[in-house]
From TrEMBL, chain A:
<feature type="signal peptide">
    <location>
        <begin position="1"/>
        <end position="20"/>
    </location>
</feature>
<dbReference type="InterPro" id="IPR005064">
    <property type="entry name" value="BUG"/>
</dbReference>
<comment type="similarity">
    <text>Belongs to the UPF0065 (bug) family.</text>
</comment>
<dbReference type="InterPro" id="IPR042100">
    <property type="entry name" value="Bug_dom1"/>
</dbReference>
<dbReference type="Pfam" id="PF03401">
    <property type="entry name" value="TctC"/>
</dbReference>
<protein>
    <submittedName>
        <fullName>Tripartite tricarboxylate transporter substrate binding protein</fullName>
    </submittedName>
</protein>
<keyword id="KW-0732">Signal</keyword>
TrEMBL record, chain B:
<dbReference type="InterPro" id="IPR002823">
    <property type="entry name" value="DUF112_TM"/>
</dbReference>
<feature type="transmembrane region" description="Helical">
    <location>
        <begin position="417"/>
        <end position="444"/>
    </location>
</feature>
<keyword id="KW-0472">Membrane</keyword>
<feature type="transmembrane region" description="Helical">
    <location>
        <begin position="109"/>
        <end position="135"/>
    </location>
</feature>
<feature type="transmembrane region" description="Helical">
    <location>
        <begin position="169"/>
        <end position="187"/>
    </location>
</feature>
<feature type="domain" description="DUF112">
    <location>
        <begin position="20"/>
        <end position="438"/>
    </location>
</feature>
<feature type="transmembrane region" description="Helical">
    <location>
        <begin position="465"/>
        <end position="488"/>
    </location>
</feature>
<feature type="transmembrane region" description="Helical">
    <location>
        <begin position="20"/>
        <end position="49"/>
    </location>
</feature>
<feature type="transmembrane region" description="Helical">
    <location>
        <begin position="391"/>
        <end position="411"/>
    </location>
</feature>
Length: 314, 505
């Protein structure tokens, strides 16, 4: 009996967030997703590279990160050890959910990684190029069903931007939102939808195996090792990346902020982090300081416009 | 080398003493954390994944497999003993398992769950090894309209299997369906019924609801009875082990559960819960002792537990053959695999056979280790029930709260746990079954989303639902399941059903 109690207490201790840590990173999502993986990779590398002695990860899932950011902003105020992972999806979620807490209420530190979007069709489809797809979209926007991630997320926004660039009314797009990356990929592979959209990493193995045809990627220039044109080359002026960032708590001093930035500068240059980026297939889009803040403001403004165009934000 | 050679090679590596030790450590850790209510296998694996990073590829794969199966199994122990399901896939186990435990048959319930999990895990892992590429082709044919038809079938078979009164069962089901509407609508991103409360945006968490309904509601119910509580819990009545009759009643349920659970787990939008619901409904219909259901029927534990483990192996089919993580647990496993340079996808079986077969061999070993660890512990676990009632229920409250807070540190979540505990108490007092609430909460959103996706793809043409052969067959089965009993009953031949069930085997 004693053993059971002891075991349970041990297990309980494992499950509870600990408070004595150099950094405590909040992933505002359930275990398994991109933010959670980013947080856990940060944990491993920060410790491995001896940048921080002990790092804790805590998950606060819900509503595209808006629940996490609200909790982070109110509970960690002034705490120089608290870090939150976030990203582009959060920008959209804050707008669609009319979240009272926004990225203005935390201290953005750096953009870490990015993934470009890719547009695919099943190998058996008669659509061979972006031009074919655009022609179908122009003929009847409703007849082209797009399979992708959650409503209002990066995938949805990209489809809205594509429609707009092609001169099609973005409110007419037939976007089918799936809850997980796996589910939408299954629908694309099974030919349930006309075209699919997801970050390149999620589709890579299918594209290499030849079961999906890659039409275009959403980067500024062609990507190394990927045999596909950009959307821009295909005549659609759309450049978008699903980036991930870290933010610190609100109300920290300028010195505290500088110390955190210095730690992440060290992280980005470390071999451990570069190796992680490679195995995970994440692009290194490290950006910090005023340049990052400027880019962030630009992304927020552009996202608000397109979400209004699609009709998700009034 | 042939498939079989690879498997033997993998098994040989996994059988090394050091690797067996890793498997034991993994299974123990997984079970320990998995036992906490509210902490499902996904969280367990995420919490313990860093532990495996320190080992070499083979060692960590084996420990990892142990944690996975251990976490899956840990949930059923608390379901049976304390009526607090650790995760949504072991909710059905609590229905009959806890009734058995309170009747002094906790030992056989735990044993049939452990052996059933082992049998299902064994068969499903072998199926994963040999027929995964074929299964996945069938699973991909399932699009939104096929899933919708499957949900309709699940609703009809399952809702008739719960409780004695259809009206009360349906009332509970609709409470669950109404609650399932709360939160952000998946297809448009707009929030529904959240009344401006941010914590409600993601809907009502199924495990919180399950723990509230089962554990908190039950505790309040017992506490309200005070000293007059009639049913005294007997820890052990008869043998701690399964009797000959238990075996006879369990083995077919194990096999049927495996048969139902594996393909549903392999479907990208299947999920482990649906398999357990369907298995429970099947067992109730086929049982020679349908009157025991709701009072501790061993088939009602054996079938769903087997289905639950078989679907866990089924989840690996799309993960390994397509690189599709179809559940939170699978997504974390994907992250784990990448650690060893394993890139799941269509080419995996061709490019990395050693690692794949190593993993499959590890799963087999972990499965065996789980049985070795848990069967001797059955006697110890049931002693939990000999704790005096006030202590036991205080402990249940503590663990239910701890689990909920551990999974999601939020005051609102805790408030919801207590509120729904009160609701469950009221439902118990007035004789409404609680399981259909959970069923509605799980199946409701799936059915709604798949229906809307199907209609959206077809641009509003409702006939699309019947135009796929698979969907049409499933809908016809559902219609038969609804109409046949009605016709038989109206002719005053309701007992024919029981006879039909009896003569099936």
């Amino acid at each position: 009996m004693k053993h059971i109690m002891l075991a349970s207490i041990l297990a309980g201790a494992l499950a509870m967030p600990a408070y004595a840590a150099d950094y405590s990173i909040m992933a505002p999502a359930a275990p398994g997703g991109g933010w959670d993986q980013t947080a856990r990779s940060l944990q491993t590398v920060l410790q491995q590279e001896k940048i921080s002695k002990r790092v804790q990860v805590m998950n606060v899932p819900g509503a595209g990160g808006t629940i996490g950011i609200a909790q982070f902003a109110s509970q960690q105020k002034g705490n120089p050890n608290a870090i939150m992972v976030g990203g582009y999806v959060m920008v959209g979620a804050i707008l669609t959910n009319k979240s009272p807490v926004t990225l203005k209420d935390v201290t953005p530190i750096a953009r870490l990684t990015g993934e470009y979007e890719s547009i695919v069709v099943p190998a058996s489809s008669d659509i061979k190029t972006v031009a074919d797809l655009v022609a179908k979209l122009k003929a009847n926007p409703g007849a082209v069903s797009w399979g992708g991630g959650s409503a209002g997320g990066t995938d949805h926004i990209t489809v809205g931007l594509i429609a707009k660039a092609a001169g099609v009314d973005p409110t007419k797009i037939n976007y089918i939102a799936f809850s997980g990356g796996g589910e939408s990929l299954a629908a694309i592979l099974g030919g349930q939808v006309t075209a699919g959209i997801a970050s390149y990493g999620e589709l890579e193995s299918q594209i290499k195996a030849g079961t999906l045809r890659l039409l275009a990627v959403s980067s500024e220039q062609r990507l190394e090792g990927i045999d596909a044109p950009t959307l821009k080359e295909s005549g659609l002026d759309v450049v978008i990346q699903n980036w991930r960032m870290v933010a610190a708590a609100p109300g920290i001093t300028a010195e505290q902020k500088a110390a955190i930035v210095a730690d992440f500068d060290k992280l980005d240059k470390s071999k451990g982090w570069q190796d992680t980026l490679k195995t995970k297939g994440w692009q290194d889009t490290y950006l910090t300081g005023p340049a990052f803040e400027e880019q962030l403001a630009k992304d927020i403004a552009a996202t608000e416009t397109i979400l209004k165009d699609i009709g998700l934000v009034k | 080398m042939s498939t079989f050679d690879f498997l033997l090679q993998g098994l040989a590596a996994a059988m090394l003493p050091m690797n067996l030790f890793y498997a034991l450590v993994g299974v123990t850790l997984g079970t320990m954390v998995g036992v906490l209510p509210g902490i499902g296998p996904a969280t367990t694996v995420a919490l313990l994944l860093p532990v495996t990073y320190q080992l070499d590829a083979t060692g960590s794969l084996i420990m990892f497999a142990g944690i996975y199966y251990g976490g899956m199994y840990g949930g059923s122990t608390t379901s049976i003993l304390l009526n607090t399901p650790g995760e949504s896939a072991s909710i059905v186990t609590a229905l009959e398992g806890n009734k058995m435990a309170r009747a002094g048959r906790g030992g056989p319930a735990l044993a049939t769950a452990a052996i059933g999990s082992f049998v299902a895990g064994l068969i499903a892992t072998l199926a994963l090894a040999f027929i995964a590429p074929y299964i996945v082709k069938i699973a991909l044919v399932f699009g939104p309209r096929e899933y919708f038809a499957l949900m309709v079938l699940a609703f009809i078979t399952v809702s008739s299997a719960f409780g004695d009164s259809t009206l009360r069962g349906l009332t509970s089901l609709f409470i669950g369906l109404a609650l399932s509407l709360v939160g952000i609508d998946q297809l448009t991103g707009q929030s529904r019924l959240s009344f401006g409360v941010p914590d409600l945006l993601d809907g009502i968490e199924v495990t919180t609801m399950a723990v509230a309904m089962f554990a908190i509601g039950e505790t309040l119910f017992i506490a309200a009875q005070g000293a007059t509580a009639p049913d005294k819990i007997e820890a052990v009545k008869g043998s701690v082990w399964m009797t000959g009759q238990d075996w006879a009643r369990s083995w077919k349920a194990w096999l049927r559960g495996t048969l139902i659970g594996f393909p549903i787990g392999a479907m990208p939008a299947g999920g482990a819960e649906i398999g357990t619901f369907l298995s429970y409904a099947t067992e109730k219909r086929l049982s020679k002792h349908p009157e025991e259901f709701g009072h501790g029927a061993i088939e009602g534990v054996a079938g769903p537990e087997a289905a639950n483990n078989a679907s866990a192996a089924g989840t690996l089919v799309p993960l390994l053959t397509l690189g599709l993580p179809t559940s939170a647990t699978a997504a974390i496993m994907l992250a784990g695999f990448q650690q060893y340079g394993l890139q799941p996808g269509p080419l995996l079986f061709a490019t990395n056979p050693q690692l794949v077969w190593g993993l499959i061999a590890s799963l087999l070993i972990a499965n065996l280790m789980l049985l070795v660890l848990n069967l001797p512990l059955v006697g110890l676990w049931v002693r939990l029930l000999t704790i005096p009632k006030p202590w036991l229920y205080a402990g249940i409250l503590l663990f239910a709260t701890l689990g909920t807070i551990g999974a999601n540190p939020s005051v609102f979540e805790l408030g919801m746990l207590l509120l729904f505990g009160l609701v469950a108490y009221g439902m118990r007092v007035f004789g409404y079954p609680i399981a259909p609430v959970i069923v509605g909460l799980i199946l409701g959103p799936l059915a709604e989303q798949q229906l809307r996706r199907a209609l959206s793809i077809a641009q509003g043409d409702i006939m699309t639902l019947f135009q796929s052969p698979i969907a049409a067959v499933l809908l016809i089965l559902a219609a038969l399941a609804l109409i046949v009993p009605l016709i038989l009953r109206s002719r005053g031949r309701g007992d024919v059903l029981t006879q039909m069930a009896a003569s099936e085997d």
